[in-house]
Amino acid sequence: xxxxxxxxxxxxxxxxxxxxxxxxxxxxxxxxxxxxxxxxxxxxxxxxxxxxxxxxxxxxxxxxxxxxxxxxxxxxxxxxxxxxxxxxxxxxxxxxxxxxxxxxxxxxxxxxxxxxxxxxxxxxxxxxxxxxxxxxxxxxxxxxxxxxxxxxxxxxxxxxxxxxxxxxxxxxxxxxxxxxxxxxxxxxxxxxxxxxxxxxxxxxxxxxxxxxxxxxxxxxxxxxxxxxxxxxxxxxxxxxxxxxxxxxxxxxxxxxxxxxxxxxxxxxxxxxxxxxxxxxxxxxxxxxxxxxxxxxxxxxxxxxxxxxxxxxxxxxxxxxxxxxxxxxxxxxx
Length: 333
What we know:
This protein is an alpha/beta fold.
């Protein structure tokens, strides 16, 4: 079960969000969601607050103040950001991963000596041909910088093509594998935040990434937050439902599945066969609007949508039919 609650306090108010394992932060108030994520990332980045920053004065986990070193946070907000981190550069994640692997897993001293011998021969030829006219100067290299050859390497797509040929799905998957490789021996607690994941992946691709995230949490204790705002995109099942936070006018952490079943059975306007499929499908389709004022879809809008889609030969059939009692409930509330 997911039951860890993160409380974020700033000078204006307190926010509560679910944060254990693989979390999905839903809701249509994208501005507030982004603010919460930015406060979270800034707090754990340990960087100095600027005057213009929205400051999280304290963050609590299970009512205990969490230090700014508690999480190593990896924030992803765009395709280009992932491409940059997958390249070899001065401060990229891929460079950190490669250098860590060399220092921990590989002894390349013999190979480096062989490279050194080859370079000595090359420089002898250069000095004999290009620098023979100069007096008391020659071309040379520093042994200590031999590893910089690796740092000048490039990461490519298969067949040597540019890394930009990677699909969004391939980028996300490789980024997660990179984080796993870095965190494998770090001894820290990592948190990967992928904001607006629904702007990068189709829903079928996201489901695969969600399963991969669950595996990474189970095997490497790497936590996840996926920011989502598109209807029907969130992964909803009996086991993960109370790891879902909805950020709208209010922040709502969904309760356990059994409590949702009980609430619906006690409050639904007609006797309905409350199957697991019926509940999860309907929760999935309305989850982005929970806790938002004036969020109901007008029946007339639904009719117009159906009319237009029918003209476009697009199927608008509803899985679950609505009767007159249900319509009266909507009209009277």
